[in-house]
Structure formats: C-alpha cells, structure tokens
Predict the 3D structure of the following.
Amino acid sequence: MVMSDWQPLCDLTAIPHVGGHYVVHHGRPLAVFRHNGEVIVMDDTCPHAGGSLSAGRIDGESRCVLCPWHGWPFELATGQCPDNPTYRVQHYEVKVEDHRVYVR
Ligand code: FES
C-alpha cells in the first residue's frame, strides 16, 4: 500500500491501553497500538503464519509486539523482526490531531 497523503484511520479512543486495535484500511488489515504515549500502526498479518498482531501483546522491555500464535517479536518502531532480519511487517507514519489517528 502506498499512501502519500495523510488518511484518517480511527479515533484515538478506539485504541485500548493494553493490547491492539484491529482496523481494515483500504482492504488492508492493520494493527494499532498505544505505547508510552505513542500511537503505532503496522500491518496486522504476521509473516510467519498469518497470526493477527493486533491480538498480540506488547513487550515493553524489547519494545516489540509479540505475535499471539508463536510469539515472534516485531519492533514497534520499525516493524522489523529482531530475531530474523528477513521478516518484517509494514510500518506506517502516524499523526494524531483532535483525537483522530491518521496514517500515511
Ligand atoms: S504466526 Fe506469528 S509467530 Fe507464527
């Protein structure tokens, strides 16, 4: 997905303080998280076997979301899997205005 313009994604209040929020945006499943005051958006589908990252949990020490199926970690800052550099999920730029989350 190539997005050059900011696009509205969801309300800030839709994102839980623990766990993720699942959103389908232009047909693409996305996972939205809050962590240390930041909003993070990445593709929802784990490249290992298709687990839903929005159902995973955040490990604050490694700053990764852990896939709920087999525990693969993906860095919140980049979407990179630190255990295997060949795997990553798409990670998006985020801004929040007036309690709305936008991505590009
Ligand atoms: S499906 Fe995500 S770690 Fe296996």
